[in-house]
Each structure stands twice: as structure tokens, then as C-alpha cells.
# Entry
Amino acid sequence: MKKTKSEKAQQTKKKIIQSAEQLLLDNTINKISVRDITTKANVAKGTFYLYFDSKAELAWTLVEKSVLVFDQELTVLSNAPVTKEVLSSLISKAVDFSIKHKKLLQIIHHEHFLAFLQHDDQHKEYEERFTLKIQTWLDRGNQEGIFQIPDTYFYAKFMLVSLHDLLERMILGELDYDLASSKEHLTTIMNNILQWGAL
# Structure
């Protein structure tokens, strides 16, 4: 069966993204040119610009691959029952994603990559969006009498930043601890912070 133009376009775009990822495993983004990427992908340089306006847009595509997954999981959380099992599932999925996509996450958390993107404003936007989704879940826990959290926004921010920073440091090798072994500990810590029914 012949592939449609749409399918071919999707495959070409995917090939460009994958080629960029492979190159970024060995070089910083500043040392990789659009020509390097298209040569690796075996496509014409002009083809790159059918899908991306610039190398920076391609870089953001790599970031959004991971952001989108976490955003979807937090959307599920914001509408999910307030139970320990739901929280445990979220942490487990975050750790599993970190293990599966460790190389990609190492790339997008590299200091040169972040400096290239000048990502501060976008990072704050993502952090705020994620925090509010966790807060929605905590607020419902308060309403249902499960929690008695005095400031759900602060708790949500603390949970998000703590989980993100710990996983990031393990991914980058700055914290000598096995990702897979961290699930139980992270879940225990978050449960202790929330003090289910104990406040």
C-alpha cells in the first residue's frame, strides 16, 4: 500500500527529529548545524525548513515531547480521585518516562541546550501550568476532607519542584541514585508531605 503525502511528511519530520537527537548525544546544540542534521537525516537542507523555521524551533520540539507527556498525566491527575494509588501511579509514570527517555532528557537539560533556548519564560509558564493542575487535585482533597492543607498552591509547587529536581539530578548523574529504585522512596516522601487524613 502506498503511503500518503501526509504519512511521508510525518515520517520525514520524525527522521529529522531523530537525527537531531542522535547528533545531540555527542555534541552541544551550538556545534550542530542545520546541514549536519539534514545530512544525518539524508534529506535536502530545504526540506528542514518545510517543518521547522529554525534550529531553535526544532529544539523546542524536543522539549515539548517530554512536556506534553507530563502535561497529559497532570491533566488526568487533576480530574482523578484523590487517593494514594493515583499519586503513586503519577510518580511511577514520571520515573518510567525518565528511564525510557533518559538520553532525550539528558539532552534537553544540558546547560548549553537551555542557554540556547533562553527558556526561562517558557519554563515558568510550564511550571505554573503544572502547579495549578496539582493544586486542583489537592483542593478537591481538601473539599472532600482528605487533606487539611492550608496553602494548596504552595504544596503543589513544592511537590512539582521537588519531584522534577530530584529526577533531573538523577538523570544528569548529579545524584548517585538509581532511577528505578527511586519510585518507592519518592512516593513515601510525597505521602508523608500530604499526611493523608492526619492533619
Observations:
- The longest helix spans residues 55-78.
- The domain at 1-52 is CATH 1.10.10.60 (Arc Repressor Mutant, subunit A).
- The CA atoms of residues 11 and 33 lie 21 Å apart.
